[in-house]
Design goal:
This protein is of the alpha+beta class. The protein is built from 5 helices and 5 strands, in the order H-H-E-E-E-H-H-E-E-H.
């Protein structure tokens, strides 16, 4: 998977959630974990979303504790993925998007932890990437 595709995938995910939070700024402001739950519901309602020929966003979950989890499917079997290379490349793109995206400011301000979980077409976990506030505040 090319770096450009990886960047697009990360950008789409960030944009969906960021759009929700911008809308929240102009309307009501429930507790932050509740906002994350509502954002996850909004994302999930639009899913599944095919991001490219290799990746589909399946849903989002707000497990609590200022965490936001995205679930993706990679259109391949786990054994065919170079997991260390995939994880390293995706973590870099995701971290950069979280760090610099103006739309992500509120989530950064609330010290949200972002979790990106990738599964193969049979449901086996391929990679789990966690982006913590300590990582994006550097």
């Amino acid at each position: 998977m090319s770096n450009k595709r990886l960047g697009v995938i990360a950008g789409v995910a960030v944009g969906v959630v960021a759009g929700y939070f911008l809308a929240q700024l102009f309307f009501h402001r429930p507790g932050y974990d509740k906002q994350l739950e509502e954002a996850a519901s909004t994302v999930t309602a639009m899913c599944p979303v095919t991001l490219d020929e290799f990746t589909r966003m399946d849903n989002a979950v707000a497990p609590g504790g200022r965490k936001f989890l995205y679930n993706y499917t990679i259109m391949a079997l786990r054994d065919s993925v170079d997991i260390p290379a995939f994880t390293e490349a995706m973590q870099g793109h995701i971290l950069e998007n979280v760090r610099i995206s103006p739309e992500m400011k509120e989530m950064r301000d609330h010290k949200t932890t972002f979790i990106y979980c990738y599964h193969d077409i049979e449901g086996a976990e391929v990679a789990r990437i966690e982006i913590t506030p300590a990582m994006y505040q550097k």
